[in-house]
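Q: I'm teaching a short session on how sequence maps to structure, and I want students to see two examples side by side rather than one. Could you give me a first protein with its sequence written out and its structure tokens following it? Keep the formatting plain so it prints cleanly on a handout.
A: Of course. Example one:
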Amino acid sequence: MNRTLAPERLATLVGEFNRSPAYRGLCQALQELIGDGRIPLGTRLPSERAVTLALGVSRNTVTRAYADLIAAGFATARQGAGTFATVPVDRRRAHDHALHALGTNPAIEGAIDLNCAAGAATPGVAAAYERALAALPSYLCSDGYLPSGLPGLQAMIAESYARRGLPTAPEQIVITSGALSALAVTARALSRPGDRVMLESPVYSNAIEALRLGGGKLISSPLANPLGGQGWDLDGIEATLRQTSPHLAYLIPDFQNPTGFLMDDAMRARYAAALRDARTTAIVDETLQATALSDAPMPAPFAAHATDAITLGSASKMFWGGLRVGWIRAPRPLIRRLINARVQFDLGSSLFDQLVVAQLLAQPDILANRRELLRQRRDALIAALREHLPDWRFRQPEGGLTLWVHLPHGSATRLCADMERSGIHLAPGPVFSVEGGADGWLRIPYAKPEEELVRAVKEVAKTWAVAPRDTHGRHEVSRRLIA
């Protein structure tokens, strides 16, 4: 179902565009609006005649602007149907180098990979492996297959939910090989190919691919202005739920990836009520919940408001990405379905890694040290950006692992391609969008050491200083957005 943009709405969005010449300014303003997602992909643009009247320009101006927009790949003309918003193919899903196959994509010497929001192991992980190794012999007499997980680890995770105000029994926990595996298992257990799945936009890129490969028909629900406010546009979310009735909804209420927003209790309650009304089951990704970087109290788990919600967690962001241990917390009636779906992927997670995670969870000071390290790295990255790229805009997150940064002009996809040649690997906005757009945004993780973060920012600043200011209209629209 294609949406139609009214000419009056287009005029409001475009605002005061550059008219020297007018066709170019109009084209650039529309390119910005489509690229950032404020004109959703697939939207039918108003007719040339309607735009002429709405903007008070000549018909030739609109005709040429539309032609240039099509030539640039930001619109497509369908004979007899109209002109529709799109984005160039190379900006729809920009390539993510973070997890390339071993032996491919040889790195430049001294390269810094900021595609992946992960770093080295937290201090204390090596000692936990040693203690786990000492405990391992007592399990070697069994077959080692534990589709539900190590009972002791299940109990520890259940207790962690209870401490946060969500009573949970150990049998409500299914241990998986990471949070992404948990998402794939949940999607397979609870949906069929073709079922609608609502996702936030922008959102964790690997979740997009996991749900798409699972056969879900993905529906995006854009967040509100990522530079201010509370992040979630609940009016828009409620409208999307009413209009599309998705079977599942994937959301990240705790330090949303990539924006870093934290959903408060009132918003969680309202969101949960909207999901109930739409008969939509929430898949709640809590992978980043434990990465709070302030002492402010955390909201209650989303599942405290939505009792049928499925909650996903992981040890990777807490301790180390090499620990492929995640989990699902679900209502009791769904556990058997989840386990049945899980054994179609594997017969259980590494028992040894589960023993390691149990050792780490038993020592809360390890996670506290991890948070302090992340806080220092976040502050170092922010200081470097403010010093070397003062025109770039972002909000300081109170948790999570990333900054969501808005460029004052230009294409983040092009900038990232340029930085590849300098050995700095970054992920542009289209990576985190279901269909594309958000090309004025860049995700920068702060999981790496401070010296690497500062060096990366300095290298980006050198490239940025000579980057062409390719769209005056883009700059003007962005300035209004930030204001």
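Q: Perfect. Now a second example for contrast.
A: Example two:
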Amino acid sequence: MQYLDFEQPIADLEKKIKELTELTIADDDVLKPEINRLKGRVEELRESIFSNLTRWQRVQLARHPDRPYTLDYIFKITEHFVELHGDRYQGDDKAIVGGLATLEGQSVMIMGHQKGRDTESRKYRRFGMANPEGYRKAYRLMKLAEKFNIPIITLLDTPGAYPGLEAEERGQAEAIAKNLKMMATLKVPVVTVVIGEGASGGAIGIGMGNEVYMMENTWYSVISPESCSSILWKTWDYKEQAAAVLKLTAEDLKQMDVIDGIIEEPLGGAHRDPEASAAAVKEQLLESLERLKKIDAHQLVENRIQKYSSMGEVRKQTESTANT
């Protein structure tokens, strides 16, 4: 298990527990009280640390290398998953995966960003950063779902759309914009869950849902803290301050009515108990689909358009307020 910097006190105690457990002593009663005391202290520390996380610490948790990714959730919460490949224009982008599956017996089209676990797979998946063909594949899958009246589930986990020259040459901005236009008028339910990082157009390109949820330790923003810091301060050194002012956590976005709810994670993060995390995501998806499938197609479209057009506030400055 990899520990983050703010988890070091927990790591030290768990290392001590492991050392004591591995000691060979004839009388187990000598060590058991001390081991139990240390385990209790670990739980107290974990409760204390994770009940007072900063925004930057939640960003770190969202990026934890052991955190479940899209395919992990797909295989844990669905049955009979059949992956569909290619955009029918350029190729098959491995940074976005998707296909048909069943969720408790009902057909769904499920897709999301996929990161890698090691150097080779991260290169293969480009760290979950999609090229235009990834968004065009998602477009094709969503239109296929609409054709057969199948609900859509999207899982967001990307540091952004791929910024390479070849992506721009093949129309990165156009591909994302086309997806947004299409998703606004889809005649089937769309449920979106941020399972890790939700950065900029790379995330929203498959994230315009009727209902949008975030897992407890995830972030969703127009820009990453590092990029914000580099623009404002010309260095990444102020990324923690940037995270604080961006208000990018699940709690922040729920308060601003950008998302519909927060999916709780096991204490310590989703990677601590992937099974429990998947069960929580599945429960929310089933609840949302049960609610949305009762709404007719026309109203689904209207609700989605209204949801996004009402985000944010526009205040017109009058002459009297300008002079005060």
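Q: What should students look for in example two?
A: Point them to this: The chain has a mean pLDDT of 93. Also worth mentioning: Residues 139 and 161 are 15 Å apart (CA to CA).
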